[in-house]
Amino acid sequence: MSWKSLATIAVSAVLWSGAAHAETISVFCAPTEFELCSSVADAWKEKTGNEAKINKMPALLDDAIPIYQQLLAAKSTDIDVLFLDVIWLGMFKNGLLDLKTAIPQADQDKHFASTLNAAKLDGNLVAMPAYMDVGLMFYRKDLLEKYGKPQPKTWDELAATAKEIQDKERAAGKGEMWGYVWQAKSYEGLTCDAIELIASNGGGTIIADDGKVTIDNPKAAEAIEKAKGWIGTISPEGTLNYDEEASRAVFESGNAVFHRNWPYVWGSSHKEGSAVIDKVGVMPLPVGSIGQKSSGCLGPMYYGVSKYSAKPNVAADFVNFITGPDMQKKRALKDAVNPSIPALYNDAEVLATIPFLKDNQQAFADSAVRPSGYTGTSYNRVSQAFYRSVHDMLSGSGDIKSGLKTLAARLEKLKESR
Amino acid sequence: MSAKLARRDHRAAWLFLLPVTAVILLVAVWPLARTFYFSFTNAYLDDPSAYSIVGFDNFIEVVTDHSWWIAVKNTLVFTVISVAIETVLGLAIALLLNSAIPGRGLARAAILVPWAIPVVVATKMWEWMLNDQFGVINKILSGLGLVDHGIAWTASSSLIMGVVIFVDVWMTTPFMVLLILAGLQLISPEIFEAAEVDGIPAWKRFWSITLPMLRPAIGVAVLFRVLDALRMFDLAYVLAASNENVMTVSIYARDRLISFQELGVGSAASTWVFLLVALVAIIIIGVLRLDRATGA
Questions:
Q1: A240–B156 CB contact, under 8 Å
Q2: In chain A, which residues touch B (CB < 8 A)?
Q3: A178-194 as b/e, with b when 16 or more CB fall inside 10 Å?
Q4: How confident is the model at residue A181, as a pLDDT?
Q5: Residue A8 reports pLDDT greater than 60
Q6: CATH number listed for the domain at residues A8-126+299-366
Q7: Residue of chain B minimizing CA distance to A189
Q8: Where is the ABC transmembrane type-1 domain (chain B) (predicted)?
Q9: Which CATH number fits domain A136-297+369-414: 3.40.50.1820, 3.90.1150.10, 3.40.190.10, 3.40.30.10?
Q10: Distance from CA of A153 to the nearest CA of B (A)
Q11: How does DSSP assign A62-114, residue by residue?
Q12: Interface ipTM
């Protein structure tokens, strides 16, 4: 054997041992956060030498459920870190690793206690909060200024302002202008949009914390009636099949005055390709009538570790890293997302990017929580029964009052968790 | 051939069949049997190992569920209308392609394009083309002055089933064309020549010669398409998630099984889907006498 080939073997042996120390884990990230996740992975690699491979999740987040189920049911080691919606935690708790000891207590204590506690199931900490998501109202501040309109406080004011600006803009030649775009496709997002309208009208949150079905009430009917009146007048008929991205496309192409969505739109509407850069304002959602609470739908998002991960400690370290203060600050600065760490709500840099953050702390306190706590494993069928019947009412094929009565009777049968 | 040789042949045949039988057992019979089995249990997807037997409860639960019957209605409406349109269109296009026109080869290749596009891609493509704000269809309609603002094709509960059928027709007519064209080319030209010599008019030639001779080809094509349409999932799901107006029986089963994690009830729903498809297949084979027509 020549010296040359011996040297090659020696060099590759050194490289091999070097590579053996660095682990690679596989991480799921929401498609709208792909860039952010990649930059977090880069920072993590710099700090620990380990690599995180990012997998994009489906555009409709709910479509990730069957993927997760298959991976977990097969006890797959292909995936280490899962990105989780709060309403999924109960569903996946048996497949998630307990992070109680893997993540230092001091790091856990940095998060909002209520958000962290929502991830404590059967005495296990199944996931760590990544950020707070809450429904917000985006609006065209340039158009409100142009027509001398204040930020609307109630849904009625919003509808009136939207109508007026829409009509005047159309008369001025912008024929494609709409007053308000939101999400009313028959999917989980409609549960959020509807619960916001109903709760801020004093109509409750479908099922109360003690398990009482509250949806059949006049306040709820009034809120849905109102929303039904918007479709075709201030909201395009297509709203009935819009999800977040489809409605965002209308707003960011400059064709809508108001837009209900999640905080990420603040970041995306200021990126290249948006027609509304520096023309966007954001505020808490309006209320049904003065005195009610603005009730943005609350959806904290989490990262958890699969129980079947081959590298649980490395994966837990990544989860702690991506949910830690530095990365949450980065997320806040880049995508204007609300952190789940209270200390960041006083951070000057963060406040400069998200001036409305201080108000949001109140929005979180006032937020409407989907009834996933009481319904647990039955949440999905409760939510589907709810959004389907609301979709029926909005599209005009059902009477609202009797529809709510039928819905309440159905929920009574569906609500119990296993 | 001696008896010994024949025996050896039989043994070889069985030996060759063994791998195929094993594969079919593994990928078809085993999952089907498991679904059957689970439909008699109260198992849940997050922990399929803990369950007890509940008899026919799940089957009863499915047929007493209002949503199930909506799904059955949607599936039947979709199947009947889409397959009917595809058959008529497929026959017409196949007849055109069968006559010797210049550029026939090119046309035959071009017509296959929609069939080659994956369903999800084609559906997404149509979804954007039909979009009420940016869609090219609405741009064309308003450009022609037919509408003053975009039609929300996929939002209205009455239009959306039409859209699903339309996209399916666009996608699978080529399949019909191919099968019927293959049948057409099997018909011997002498029969037509003889009929022409006898002075039989064109429409009668079509009615009394072409159609009867095509029956096996059309029958097989319709059978394939009906079975395909009855278990349709991707098109409706991509276009409208679990919108009740286009929810098919497959989407219903998927909801119970995956979204609600009800392995028992979901399996029972899947079993109903299987029985529904099997029943329709038997009826079609019986009505069209496919077993006899194909000479089996």
A1: yes
A2: 60, 62, 65-66, 69, 73, 91-92, 94-95, 175-176, 185-187, 236-242, 246, 249-250, 253, 255, 377-378, 380-381, 384, 388, 391-392, 395, 397, 418
A3: bbbbbbbbbbbbbbbbb
A4: 96
A5: no
A6: 3.40.190.10
A7: B241
A8: 72-284
A9: 3.40.190.10
A10: 28
A11: GGHHHHHHHHHHTT-SS--EEEEEGGGHHHHGGGB---TTTS-HHHHTTS-HH
A12: 0.79
Q: Do domains A8-126+299-366 and A136-297+369-414 have the same CATH topology?
A: yes
pLDDT in tens, A145-189: 999 999 999 999 999 999 999 999 999 999 889 999 999 999 999
Kindly list the domain boundaries of chain A, sorted by start residue. 8-126+299-366, 136-297+369-414
A15 pLDDT band (50/70/90 cuts)? very low
pLDDT band at A324 (very low <50, low <70, confident <90, very high): very high
Q: Binning pLDDT at 50, 70 and 90, where does residue A4 land?
A: low
- The two structure tokens encoding residue A239: 């709203």
Provide the residue ranges of all domains of chain B, joining segments of one domain with +: 1-36, 39-293
Residues of B in contact with A91 (CB under 8 A): 46, 261
- Name the nearest CA neighbour of A255 among A331, A152, A325, A178: A178
Q: B260 to chain A: which residues are within 8 Å by CB?
A: 378, 380-381, 384
| B130: nearest CA partner in chain A | A238
CA distances from A173 to A257, A275, B136 (A): 15, 17, 21
- Are A237 and B157 within 8 A, CB to CB? no
- Domain B39-293 CATH superfamily: MetI-like (1.10.3720.10)
In the predicted model, what is the mean pLDDT of chain A? Answer: 89
